[in-house]
Amino acid sequence: MGDEGGITEDLTVEQGAFFPISTDTHQQNSGPVCGVARVQRPDREQMQMRIVDLDGLIPADHGARAIWEYVDRLPLTEVYAKILAVEGHAGRTPVDPKIHLALWLYATVEGVGSSRALAELCEAHQAYQWICGGVRVNYHGLSDFRTAHVELLDGLLTESVATLTSTGLVELNRVAQDGMRVRASAGASSFRRERSLQECLEEAEEQVRRLREELGEDPGASRRRSEAARERAAAERKARVEEALRQLPEVQAKKKSEEKGEARVSTTDPDARVMKMGDGGFRPAYNVEFATDTQSQVIVGVDVTSAGSDQGQMAPMVEQIEARHGCVPAEVLVDGGFTKKEDIDAVTAKGCTVYAPVPQPRKKDRDAHVPLADDSEAVAAWRIRMGTAAAKEIYKERASTAECVNALARNRGLRQFLVRGLRKVRAVALWYALAHNVMRILALQGAGAVVT
Questions:
Q1: Interatomic CA distance for residues 307 and 314, integer angstroms
Q2: pLDDT tens digits, residue range 230-282?
Q3: What residues make up the domain containing 40?
Q4: Is residue 215 part of a domain?
Q5: 449 domain-assigned
Q6: Fewest CB within 10 A of the end CB: N or C in the chain?
Q7: Band of the pLDDT at 15, cuts 50, 70, 90?
Q8: Which residues, other chains included, contact 366 with Cβ-Cβ below 8 Å and sequence gap of 6+?
Q9: How far, rounded to the nearest angstrom, does the alpha carbon of residue 400 sit from its chain's CA centroid?
Q10: Cα 23 from chain centroid?
């Protein structure tokens, strides 16, 4: 033990071990300090009464407040009309749909895609507690709400664009479209050929028949409930296998004649298809299509398909934008995967100019931008246009818009769907698009709210 710079180190004993204790200069005259170290230890068995100010859980500029303010202004008349519990009559009072809507919007922005994880956050995280405002939610209700209101989400997406269009922040002059392959919930082993699907169907039918017999014979109420749940699960499996068999001819039609017998469909998610992913591997997936206004980076169109290619997706998206917003974009920017001649003709006929790279010809000495003899007028004009410097400069906006929006969706958790079926998958894609647009509305209108 020494004394340097006015600090002395001594040893004390606690539970048979020695620890150095530093003392300052005014303690030097009284000698070294020895004894058991005094610390504040946790006492988790004690009872506490806490007074919580829910509104004070988050700061005034928190993103959860901005999202709630957006949701609270929405006219959800159709959703409220479906609620059977009314004032003056018996019945359990349901959770306000605005709470579910705000929770999922905030959760999507934060990258939370599981209803169980969201339910846990509503118990443990202050921002989610603030949105709930003392109302208890469960993962069943959250899960059902997420996929049950596809039409509502579709309408809200249109309204989000209309809000910015009315203020001149979105002009729908130039739109960039891109596809993004997202992993499906189905496993690769769930894909089966026709013979195997028939065997699965027979097994499912036999299981449903046997469970119904057991359900009728068993007098116990609890056992009946258990058997009824098992019967529902078996019936759902049977329905999925039947749907897989129904979609099998469509998959076979895309195969070569000698490969038709190898066509396979998933028994757990018949709508999913095996696609080539960004890393070069092949996995069950869906193709999510986003169309984005290049000026504001607001998503103006959403589609989900089971096609592994983007070919043929440009014309339907332009038609969707026209149906949603009552106008056709003046220009559409797509990558080389969209360049189908029929689509270029259809889009050009609507008054929309296509900007997409021209495929390189097989003959190296041929100029790709010179029209071919069988080119239509629209296709010929597209080839010539893409050879100009002005078109190449415009096309640069595609990557800075479409790729940016896709990256934001990936960062918010759009890497694998946790739901099955094209309708539910489309609902999840709409949640991502709507959450993106809400954040763009806040940014473009200068709300200044930060989601943390």
A1: 13
A2: 777 778 778 888 888 888 888 888 777 777 778 888 888 999 999 999 888 99
A3: 1-49
A4: yes
A5: no
A6: N
A7: very low
A8: none
A9: 21
A10: 58
